[in-house]
Design goal:
There is one protein chain. The chain has about 150 residues and is an alpha/beta fold. Helices cover about 40% and strands about 25% of the residues. It contains five helices and six strands; from the N terminus they run βαβαβαβαβαβ. It has a six-stranded parallel beta sheet with strand order 4-3-2-1-5-6, sandwiched between helices. Helix 1 runs parallel beside helix 2 and helix 4 runs parallel beside helix 5.
């Protein structure tokens, strides 16, 4: 049986006053996904929301028998100096690299992969009409994916 898969899209930078409420809302959305039978989770491992999502999944992995997949936009991203990034990446069940080099389309390709591979997309969204999060939300709609938006 194929596991139900959920991915995240969201902003890299949040107003610091919104960080903790966003993490709490994200945890609630993840718990709802787990209740709905989701067991495989994909994060793009960007700073901000992607790493918050990955940290929550890592925390819950053992208790709920979850798997975490990193979808890296380009190969050299794996060399990120951020200690939390490295810790979370070491806890992944799978790591995919979606471009050999950093280029304008590598993030787009990574985001399309995540949506295509998922049944559910959780989005942390502040209403911006442009950018990767807005694109990914629109793409999820076009692909007919279930979308749960956390408005910040």
């Amino acid at each position: 049986m194929t596991p139900k898969t959920c991915c995240i899209t969201g902003h890299r930078k949040l107003d610091p006053s919104k960080t903790e409420p966003t993490k709490e809302a994200l945890r609630n959305a993840i718990m709802k996904a787990i209740e709905d039978g989701y067991t495989h989770f994909i994060s793009g491992f960007a700073d901000g929301v992607d790493l918050y999502f990955a940290a929550i999944i890592v925390e819950l992995k053992e208790e709920y028998n979850l798997s975490l997949e990193a979808a890296l936009p380009y190969r050299n991203r794996i060399n990120c100096k951020n200690a939390e990034f490295k810790r979370l990446l070491s806890q992944c069940n799978a790591v995919g690299v979606h471009s050999e080099t950093s280029n304008k389309s590598c993030y787009l390709n990574r985001n399309c992969f995540m949506v295509n591979a998922s049944d559910l997309v959780i989005a942390v969204y502040d209403g911006r009409e442009k950018g990767g999060t807005a694109f990914t939300i629109n793409y999820a709609h076009v692909m007919g994916k279930e979308l749960r938006v956390i408005h910040i």
